[in-house]
Structure formats: structure tokens, C-alpha cells
């Protein structure tokens, strides 16, 4: 009995939250202006900002993984070039080879290879962030006596896997 009451109460609270919202009218130009204002200033709490996938935690993880991937790729490439060129120059005319620069070169290879999984995680999180969508729309329902249609606002949440 308590479970049924909790479910009914939850349904009513959910419907009050959805139908109690005001639907702002946006154009494409105002959406871009609102998103740029949300990014550049933090004091615009009086205007509602539409949902953007760039504000999700998955997008932030994508940007972090992308930054780490490019950093490890750049540092690893530089270490690899310096290590193998240093080894070549160090052993140019030496009868017995010395391996002091090879460690730097192989460490650079390992760092460059480590950037690949970071780029893969970055792309996966980017796709996750873009697959989440929210929106509002108008729902139409026929009236009981068949004299017309009743229109009300509704909210949609779309998650694709």
C-alpha cells in the first residue's frame, strides 16, 4: 500500500515539475547568444539557458582526455626524436655502441603509444555527450466531446546508446 502511494506521489511531483515550467521562445541566433553568454559570464542566472551537451560531465571528460592525449603525443614524439637522433650522433664513429640515448627514445615511443587510448576515450565520451538530448514541445490531446484539441507543454529526454 505504501509503495503504491509513493509511486502515485512521485508521479504527481514529476508531472508538476514538468507542466509547471514556462516555455521560453528561442530562435537560433538567441540560442547561440545565450550559450556564449553562459560560457563567458557566470552572473546570468536570471535568464534560462537551454540544455547543451557541452555542459555535461562527459564533454568535460572528453576535453580532458583530448588535452592529455595531445600532451602525451607531443612529449612522446619529442622524446623519441631526440633519443634516436642523439643515439645516432653519439654512436657515429664509435667502435662500441653506447645505449644512453636509446632509453630516452624508447620512453618516447611508449608515451606516444600511450596517447592512443586517451584519444579513444576522448571520442567515446564525446559520443556519449552528444547522445544525451533534452527538449520541450507541445503535446496535443483530443477533448472528450470531440470538439477540438487540448494543447499543453511537455518535456522530452532522449538517450541513445
Description:
- The chain has 161 residues and is of the alpha+beta class.
- The protein is built from four helices and two strands; from the N terminus they run ααααββ.
- It has helices at residues 2-19, 28-40, 57-90, 102-131, and strands spanning 132-142, 149-159.
- The chain has a two-stranded antiparallel sheet.
- Helix 3 runs antiparallel to helix 4 (102-131).
Per-chain topology:
Blueprint: H1 2-19, H2 28-40, H3 57-90, H4 102-131, E1 132-142, E2 149-159
Antiparallel strand pairs: 1-2
Could you provide a short overview of the structure?
The protein is an alpha+beta fold and 161 residues long. The chain has helices spanning 2-19, 28-40, 57-90, 102-131; strands at 132-142, 149-159.
The assigned structural class equals alpha+beta
Query: How far is it from the N-terminal to the C-terminal residue, by CA?
Result: 36 Å
Strand sequence of the main sheet, in spatial order? 1-2
The topology string of helices and strands comes to HHHHEE
Percent of residues in β-strands: 5-15%
Number of H/I helices: 4
Radius of gyration: 28 Å
Strand count: 2
Approximate helicity band? 55-70%
Tally of separate domains: 2
Main sheet: strands, sense, barrel: 2 strands, antiparallel
Mean pLDDT: 75
